[in-house]
């Protein structure tokens, strides 16, 4: 158990680093018209992993070595990342700032697949001139404009986790095992809704705009949560037992099958609307609102607020 916990700490460090570096990397190499889709693709990989994990868990739930095989299979992803990262070019913006125009031009030609990148290089140069020198973390908190943007970025991440999306996937199996007797299947349904809803989201970020998706997606999430909670309160009850003359309430839930299915449907609606709005957009938005001279520090803070909220919710 000590080794498992130590491994989880190391794994957590890796996840934390990648969760702030991936959106930055995507936002800096993507062309303007595809920036939302490519920045949001990180969310697509996350939900795909969740879906595949639930399929594996369903297939291995009765296997005597199930949890060992499941933990072994997850090595495929980090090994692929370790190999693949060596084939990824550095971002032109970073190269322009740290190694000059020539290095940035080589990288941009490789990324765009064309030799005509003069216009985009000029735009990068103009943007960097406007942004000025690197801003310290102290200046990030003392500059009014940056502090406002930081508040928006951190607020979005905090609210994203306050929706309760992680507890749904963490405890959803236990809840629906009590409600329907099919906890793993219910998780597969929810992760499937998560995956299928993220696909259209990749194309809607740039067409409908981030703000519209946040507003209407948030309203739909409220409906999903509210209906699922109402059905649970009205259609389900806890089991009471009398032991030695004492009335004891057990952690066992009695639900009509129709109520359980209705709960699952509206929870899936909530998850689907989250996947199309607050799930990916919080990451995209934070990576886009900060200038290059402060982006890394600012996005690391917004990402930290996300993981802090994950811990707080649990």
Total number of helical segments?
15
Please give the alpha-carbon distance between the first and last residues: 21 Å
Total strands: 2
Give the percentage of residues in beta strands. 5-15%
Order of helices and strands: HHHHHHHHHHHHEEHHH
CATH superfamily of the largest domain: MFS general substrate transporter like domains
State the helical fraction. over 70%
Shape: elongated
Relevant terms:
79% helix; 314 residues; 15 helices; mainly alpha; 6% strand; 2 domains; single chain; MFS_trans_sf
What this model shows, in words?
Helix content is 79%, strand content 6%. The radius of gyration is 23 Å and the shape is elongated. The protein has 15 helices and two strands. The protein has 314 residues and is mainly alpha-helical. It folds into two domains: 269 residues, MFS general substrate transporter like domains (Growth Hormone, Chain: A); 44 residues. The mean pLDDT is 82. A hairpin with a 2-residue loop joins strand 1 and strand 2. Strands 1-2 form a two-stranded antiparallel ribbon. InterPro entries: MFS_dom (IPR020846), MFS_sugar_transport-like (IPR005828), MFS_Sugar_Transporters (IPR050360), MFS_trans_sf (IPR036259), Sugar/inositol_transpt (IPR003663), Sugar_transporter_CS (IPR005829). Its main location: membrane. It holds the Pfam family Sugar_tr. It is found in: Membrane. Keywords: Membrane, Transmembrane, Transmembrane helix, Transport.
What would a concise description of this structure say?
By secondary structure, the protein is mainly α. The protein has helices spanning 2-29, 35-60, 66-73, 76-84, 92-98, 101-112, 118-131, 137-142, 144-162, 165-179, 183-208, 210-235, 257-276, 278-288, 292-313; strands at 236-243, 246-255.
């Amino acid at each position: 158990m000590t080794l498992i916990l130590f491994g989880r700490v190391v794994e957590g460090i890796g996840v934390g680093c990648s969760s702030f570096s991936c959106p930055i990397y995507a936002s800096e190499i993507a062309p303007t018209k595809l920036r939302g889709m490519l920045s949001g693709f990180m969310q697509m990989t996350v939900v795909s992993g969740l879906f595949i994990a639930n399929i594996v868990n369903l297939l291995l739930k009765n296997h005597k070595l199930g949890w060992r095989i499941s933990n072994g299979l997850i090595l495929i992803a980090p090994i692929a990342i370790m190999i693949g990262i060596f084939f990824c070019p550095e971002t032109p913006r970073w190269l322009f700032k740290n190694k000059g125009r020539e290095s940035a031009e080589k990288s941009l030609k490789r990324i765009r697949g064309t030799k005509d990148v003069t216009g985009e290089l000029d735009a990068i140069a103009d943007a960097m001139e406007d942004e000025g020198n690197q801003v310290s973390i102290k200046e990030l908190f003392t500059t009014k404009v940056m502090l406002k943007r930081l508040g928006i970025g951190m607020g979005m991440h905090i609210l994203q986790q306050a929706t309760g999306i992680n507890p749904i996937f963490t405890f959803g199996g236990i809840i629906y095992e009590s409600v329907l007797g099919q906890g793993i299947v219910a998780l597969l349904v929810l992760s499937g809704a998560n995956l299928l809803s993220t696909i259209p989201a990749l194309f809607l970020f740039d067409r409908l705009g981030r703000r519209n998706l946040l507003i209407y997606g948030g309203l739909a999430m409220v409906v999903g949560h509210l209906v699922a909670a109402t059905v649970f309160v009205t259609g389900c009850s806890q089991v009471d037992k009398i032991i030695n003359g004492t009335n004891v309430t057990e952690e066992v839930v009695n639900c009509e099958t129709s109520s359980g299915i209705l709960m699952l449907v509206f929870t899936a609606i909530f998850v689907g609307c989250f996947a199309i709005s607050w799930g990916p957009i919080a990451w995209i938005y934070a990576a886009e609102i900060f200038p290059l001279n402060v982006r890394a520090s600012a996005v690391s803070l917004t990402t930290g607020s996300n993981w802090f909220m994950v811990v707080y919710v649990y």
